[in-house]
Amino acid sequence: MAAAPRNFKLLEEYDAAIGKAGKSMVKGKHQGMITYGLADDEDMYLSHWKGMIIGIQGKQTGEFLYEFSITVPKSYPESPPIMKFLAPKIAMDCVDAGGKVHINKIQPAFKWSAKCNLADLLMAVRENMASDAVNKASAGLGNTKY
């Protein structure tokens, strides 16, 4: 079965991101903890997204709303989106000094494929926030930005 063209897939993701017809691609324990949508409603190519992740409740990261941006390349979904944290800073092995998320370093292991969507990436990143090492290293970063 052939993959859906980029914009058809992104339109489906956009509808789910805004909750159209009660749909959501964010599942399970991540529901209500991840919000995202287009950064600019005039973005006809659906390339620039923004959102927030509420960290894991009961942990250090759970005390903050993590703002991020996503850029969707022309080769999506074959190529993964580019995610960047904006604020506050978070200490995760998969996030570099500029806030860029390196998908191949997300733990537990996450592998991008053309079947994945933006919500899959966001849920994997939020799952990474549960790590005790991330929570310990992120203490004190609450008022910082990239």
What does it look like?
By secondary structure, the protein is α+β, with helices and mostly antiparallel strands. It has three helices and four strands; from the N terminus they run αββββαα.
Labels describing this entry:
146 residues; alpha+beta; 3 helices; 21% helix; 17% strand
Helix and strand layout, with pairings?
Elements: H1 6-17, E1 34-38, E2 48-54, E3 65-71, E4 82-87, H2 118-128, H3 132-138
Antiparallel strand pairs: 1-2, 2-3, 3-4
Strand content: 15-25%
Question: How is the quaternary structure best described?
Answer: single chain
Strands of the biggest beta sheet: in what spatial order?
Answer: 1-2-3-4
Termini separation: 41 Å
Largest sheet: number of strands, sense, barrel closure? 4 strands, antiparallel
Structural class: alpha+beta
Mean of all residue-level pLDDT scores: 95
Tally of helical segments: 3
Globally, the shape reads: globular
Short description:
The chain has helices at residues 6-17, 118-128, 132-138; strands at residues 34-38, 48-54, 65-71, 82-87. It is α+β, with helices and mostly antiparallel strands. The protein starts with 5 loop residues before the first helix and ends in an 8-residue tail after the last helix.
